[in-house]
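Input chain follows. Return structure tokens only.
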Amino acid sequence: MSIDIKFTINDILLNQESLQKKNKYTCPICLELIYKKSVYQCKSGHIACEQCWIISLQTGKACVICNLGVNSFKDLSRCLVIEQLFGQEECCCIYSFTDGIFDIKGEGENFKRSLIKDKENGCKENMVVDEIDTHLQICKYKFSKCPNKGCNVILRLNSLDQHEDQCGFKLIKCEYCKGDILKNQLNHNEECPKVTIECSQGCSMKIKRDEMKIHIDNDCGNTTIPCIYEEQGCLIQMKRSELHYHLENVNHQKFMSQLIGQLSSKVRKYEIILNSVKENLDDQYIKKKQFRAFSDLYKNKWIISNYSNIATMAVYINSPSFFIITHEFHVSLIPNYKNDDNDQNHLELYLKSKPQEKITVDYSLTLINVLDKNKSISIKNEKRVFEVNENTVEKVLFIPSDLVNKDNGWLDDDDKLTIEIYIKLLDDDIEPLKNFKNFKKKYIDE
């Protein structure tokens, strides 16, 4: 992190005393050198910096040196020769001094600093005034603050790399936890969760620090644990490593009998719950079959989002499956179907089902035009028979694939394609009504 240095041209001019005696490059009004200032002159050749001329002309319309009349700033001319000559005066780099350049002894007119040449480590290069800014940008002797957070060391740029390698605030990776730690954080291993340490209970095992609790709770042979038959009445506690000896040398037959009895009781309880669930599922299935006559009609919409992108990647698109009574259906769409008789790709749409029994349906599939409903396209099929485990489908060509876009109305502003689905079952084999098992003594649900 480079540090900007506040300095004046007087700090770095090499022949400063000679220039001041000649008074050649000093504004006669503000008495400052013309560094980075525009210089203007009257018709008699008397110069002053631009800012001083502006202030002077506000109070008087004459040159402050010769009193020649100057009505406005337009009566002055730019003195480029003086500016260019000053730009060729020799100076040194501000970074040729020690870090005393930071010791500011006041502000404004009282601005002073301790300027001591750093002959060993400072910049040795001299340049002309016009080259100062360019040189300061690339000078390898400029002062820089260590980039490591927490380190306040200020040093020259050419020694920064060497310092960074040794800086205690440099972040390094812990070889165990792979986390960032400070280079001078010497006690990290005493806290690192991934460092392997000896078991705190003295079992001779070596465990990662963050796994110690799991080891003590589940594996450590020196952990005191109760007998496995504690709930049945054996209240003896021992080290985990002694459990095997305890089980072999203490008679637990009475406790084992109690445990078997408890487990048997739980098994019977869960069997009752399981049988109840099965009976409820059987009742629901019967109700569903009996409701068949009242739910043989299905109407819905299939909305395909992000259709333009999907159509370029998918060979076919299947809708989510849906059921009519117990029969499963889904709609399939091929966005770019190639017909042998036609060179143009078409959008193809069809209904598909693999019923467990033969069924007959009337159905229609409608491709919705969102700009004009009258332009929507439908396919209808009456008394279509689906055989058991049938795989055949009726392929229907709708429209050329390249016409399916927003401009033609087949996609909405959100790039969604909408298909309306209508299906009616024509079967008449309705399941007869039967009594259910969940009845009360006085009333029977039918």
